[in-house]
Amino acid sequence: MCSRYSLTSPPEAVRAYFGYADTPNFPARYNIAPTQPIAVVARDREGVRRFRLMRWGLLPAFVKDPKAFPTLINARSEEVLVKPSFRSAMRWRRCLIPADGFYEWTGPKGKRRPFLLRPEQSRLIAFAGLYERWRDKDGGEIDTVVILTCPANRTVSPLHDRMPVVLAPEHFEAWLDVKQTTPEAALNLLQPAPDDLFEAIEVHTKINDSKRDEPGIQEPLEPSLL
Predict the structure, then answer these.
(1) Does the predicted TM-score (pTM) go above 0.85?
(2) Which residue(s) pair with 94 in the sheet?
(3) Which residues contact 18 (CB under 8 A, 6 or more apart)?
(4) Which neighbouring-strand residues pair with 164?
(5) Distances (CA, A) of 92 to 137, 139, 180, 221
(6) Whose C-alpha in 103, 115, 121, 203 is 20 to 30 A from the C-alpha of 214?
(7) How far apart are CA 194 and CA 128, in angstroms?
(8) Longest C-alpha distance within the chain, in Å?
(9) Annotated active-site residue in 2, 95, 132, 150
(10) 2 catalytic residue (yes or no)
(11) How far apart are the first and last CA of the chain?
(12) Cα gap 1→18, rounded to integer Å
């Protein structure tokens, strides 16, 4: 499961890591939540990597009424070749989602404790994603995206049994190239991240409020509050 994440790195660093042609300027985001516009990297028709904004929450093309359809923020990687909501996107519309951390919660209901999972070397990461362009009956369009998940590694498993798929830079091109990389071959890239990639840091419950999006929200919880 991945229901919140962060992208706090400077735009220049994100562009260099993902190798897209655009030069967007965007603010640091410390608490990205579902249905918000998020940064996405996808190939255009000429095969060039482009920066795009999409709504986090996939709407498959067959959906008639978005209000009657559940918000798909995650897709289990084991099911993307068989589920109608993801099958076409897995074949034709694969993307990368820039991030530098994500959040998980543990504990009993009402007393759940939030944790920030971030790379120990404080660097960028890429979530594997799928996207769709949904059209309404009046011709309006919206690009929507879902984050793929896989079984959790040893660092994440004490908090949750699932984690977002993190793709290494050497796999970016294969994942994005839907002409050369078959869905079956792309599926093999969807593996848990190495156990030593992330560190888990307990943070304050103010992260629970999706309207809170400020730097201090990622500060480790003070020992006196544990």
Answers:
(1) yes
(2) 130
(3) 41, 49, 51, 96, 98, 124, 126, 172
(4) 149
(5) 23, 22, 11, 42
(6) 121
(7) 15
(8) 56
(9) 2
(10) yes
(11) 24
(12) 24
d(CA 5, CA 55): 14
Distance CA 110, CA 108 (A): 6
Contact, 49 vs 176, CB < 8 A?
Answer: yes
Rg (the chain; Cα; Å)? 17
User: In tens digits, what is the pLDDT along the chain, a chain of 226 residues?
Assistant: 799 999 999 999 999 999 999 999 999 999 999 999 999 999 999 999 999 999 999 999 899 888 889 989 999 999 999 999 999 999 999 999 999 999 999 999 888 999 999 998 889 999 999 999 998 887 889 999 999 999 999 999 999 999 999 999 999 999 999 999 999 999 999 999 999 999 999 999 999 999 999 988 999 987 544 4
Of the candidates 12, 46, 79, 104, the residue annotated as catalytic is 104
What is the token pair recorded at 183? 């869905």
Active site residue 219: no
* Residue 102, beta-bridge partner list: 5, 117
